[in-house]
């Protein structure tokens, strides 16, 4: 409890709004609250094996995230220097990213129509010696700020972060993700948890008044 006592945890529910199918199977825990997930979201998924996946909902921010990663971290990740503009553009066709950065050039050479069916995930590394998730998060935040400036939507809420966890996953993996979010240099102390809906939603939970009798 002490690890999360300072965090504001808000539970979100995926609505019936169409979203691209994801090749990562997640058996989500249930919740009795019905709040839709916003479009401007960075989602960190933890599967039942404890592997980590990363995705950004906004297509423009998604491509800008990889561009920024290449600009800022090419010395850390030499594989990024090999990426062409076309490969970066192809990144938009990956519904979810779950690989080591060293695999990116090979993955993004796959025809765009086939990228959505990739399943041989290795997970995004999060160990202290190779914390790639941290750098993806930082690049996505920078890309979102740039998009707000370029689009003139300076009053738009900044990109939100959500953790989508499997109800049978290793709790330690989720704790590691929370640690990355809350420690330097990321310093994100407000994030969301994505769950599925459990049973009917009451009028109070939905935020509406019950019909008069």
Task: Describe this entry's structure for a reader.
The structure is a single chain. With about 210 residues, the chain is an alpha/beta fold. It has one domain. Helices cover about 30% and strands about 15% of the residues. It contains 7 helices and 8 strands; from the N terminus they run ββββααααββαβαβα. The strands form 2 sheets. Strands 1, 2, 3, 4, 7 and 8 form a 6-stranded mixed sheet that branches. Strands 5-6 form a two-stranded antiparallel sheet. Helix 6 links the parallel strand 7 and strand 8. Helix 1 crosses helix 5. The longest helix is centred in the middle third of the chain and has 20 residues. The N and C termini lie far apart (about 45 Å). The relative contact order is 0.24.
Based on Cα principal axes, name the global outline.
globular
What's the pLDDT, averaged over the residues? 78
| Sheet with most strands | 6 strands, mixed
The unreliable regions are: 1-21, 197-213
Task: State the secondary-structure class.
Answer: alpha/beta
How much helical structure, as a percent, in the residues? 25-40%
Give the H and E element order: EEEEHHHHEEHEHEH
Number of domains: 1
- What is the end-to-end distance? 43 Å
Q: How many beta-strand elements?
A: 8
Count of alpha and pi helical runs: 7
